[in-house]
Design goal:
482 residues; Alpha-Beta Plaits; 18 strands
Length: 482
């Protein structure tokens, strides 16, 4: 139950209709995922010890920075936990209210405040959906260059908070790379701006990205945007093995033939998309390389011809223009899906559990081979692999109710973690630490860096009210219940 009197205070700040206290309404926040996204974002529990449902005490929906600050001040005085949430792209438990408290639902703060075509920047509130931002920027001949697979529901604020990776990283970098300034409400209610990107002094805008709401609530983002290129074309190749596709991608990088992005996939990619399946009716291909190029037409044409030669020398079979055109912009495949699946619907209780691994590019083949060995060792079902500019994504189907599947998954993930570590990588190359990946933080950073992080956390949030138990565990907040 919330502390006595806090309900009336919060209603006075944001209005009665924007404070949720009904148990049924509050249950919609228990997974840290919003209802419309729950099918794909509540899988984080599979294979973890977090079986209980964590219901917040209240949820508030502010409409301005000032309202957020007032809400934070009220909760800070009473020591009430705060959990910021906007898009609900919660793949690692980062927005789960494990200690109850107040969910700060930012969805009313969803406006693009300014687009500066001359100086190439945009100012947004945190709940602006990435695909909506791109639609608006496109009217001005601009793009923001951040396109994770969840772009249809992921928000600007959430992407900054977890340091979202992107399929267009070769050309535009990540959203954190393009940050110019943040406005943040600190845990005691003060409103700060991190200062201009060109200034001297401490780089304050580097503190809050990837902090997952544990240091403050982001209320405004100023980010660099880019001019849309005049010409864009996609191309694809089929290979007999995933390794051949990877080695082709690496060769393209060594020749500095950097397309907008590249996607590498194991054989499931071809059979899950009807038009691609027609290109390979006998299902001989085990690796697919999909690229998108953009720029001036002559430049793109020249680069495309060089890529054709490199892929052909490695026995890549080019996907027909008809098939590529039928898919449309391949970047949308991962947000809207293919027009029609090549396979019948699978009526199964199993869900796909995946991990986004970062490893040095020249170690991708080694890790992929180890992944295949682990699949065989643990008898994992329907393994898939996908490599993008920023991470290697591997996954398999698991029945959450099968003790055998869960036990196998635990061993599989632990061995996979060791494989990634041994080559200088990490088992979470995207989506943040949350609850699922929190134990990996210390191995990634080491004792000295962790101690510094703890000092920063305690300096800004001495009462430990901001999204407790995420990233760092200073009070054993995230210990799973028995």
């Amino acid at each position: 139950m919330p502390p006595r009197g806090i309900l009336d205070e919060l209603k006075e700040i944001v209005g009665s209709k924007n404070v949720l206290s009904d148990t049924k309404a509050l249950r919609s926040y228990t997974d840290g995922s919003l209802d419309e996204n729950r099918g794909s974002t509540s899988r984080w529990r599979v294979g973890t010890s977090y079986g209980a449902r964590f219901v917040p005490d209240l949820a508030v929906m502010p409409s301005s920075t000032e309202e957020v600050a007032a809400v934070v001040q009220v909760c800070n005085r009473r020591g009430v936990p705060l959990i910021p949430l906007s898009g609900g792209s919660n793949l690692v438990g980062a927005t789960v209210p494990i200690k109850g408290g107040v969910v700060v639902d930012m969805r009313r703060m969803n406006r693009v405040l300014k687009i500066d075509e001359s100086n190439l920047y945009a100012i947004c509130q945190p709940a602006v959906i990435l695909s909506d931002l791109q639609t608006e920027l496109g009217l001005h001949g601009l793009c923001h260059g951040t396109n994770p697979g969840s772009a249809d529901w992921a928000t600007v604020g959430g992407a900054v908070s977890i340091g979202a990776q992107t399929m267009t990283g070769f050309r535009y970098g990540t959203i954190v790379d393009n940050l110019l300034e943040l406005e943040v409400v600190l845990p005691y209610g003060d409103i700060v701006k991190t200062g201009p990107w060109y200034g001297s002094g401490y780089n304050l805008r580097g503190i809050f990205p990837r902090s997952e709401g544990t240091l403050g609530i982001i209320t405004q983002v100023t980010m660099r945007v880019h001019r849309l290129p005049p010409y864009r074309v996609s191309a694809g190749f089929m290979f007999d093995s995933f390794e051949a596709a990877v080695r082709t991608q690496l060769e393209l990088s060594s020749l500095e033939l950097h397309p907008l992005s590249t996607i590498l996939s194991s054989d499931t990619f071809g059979r899950e998309h009807e038009e691609l399946a027609r290109e390979d009716p006998k299902r001989q291909s085990r690796g697919w390389l999909i690229l998108e190029l953009e720029g001036e037409k002559t430049e793109v044409s020249r680069t495309s011809r060089r890529i054709d030669r490199v892929a052909g020398a490695r026995e890549g079979r080019k996907i027909s223009r008809r098939s590529m055109d039928s898919i449309g912009d391949f970047l949308l495949i991962f947000t809207t899906g293919a027009r029609k699946s090549a396979l019948p619907a699978l009526h199964t209780a199993k869900v796909r559990v995946s991990r986004h691994i970062w490893v040095p590019p020249d170690k991708i083949v080694e890790v992929y081979r180890a992944f295949e060995d682990l699949v065989e060792k643990y008898g994992m079902d329907d393994p898939t692999a996908l490599n993008t500019p920023t991470r290697l994504i591997v996954g398999c189907l698991v029945d959450p109710k099968s003790e055998r599947d869960i036990t196998a998954l635990a061993g599989f993930l632990e061995d996979l973690r060791m494989v990634a570590r041994d080559v200088g990588g990490t088992l979470f190359g995207a989506h943040g630490a949350g609850l699922v990946n929190k134990s990996e933080i210390e191995e990634d950073y080491g004792e000295g860096a962790i101690e510094l992080m703890k000092r920063i956390k305690l300096a800004l949030d001495p009462r430990l009210i901001m999204n407790p138990g995420k990233v760092l565990d200073l009070d054993n907040s995230e210990t799973p219940p028995e």
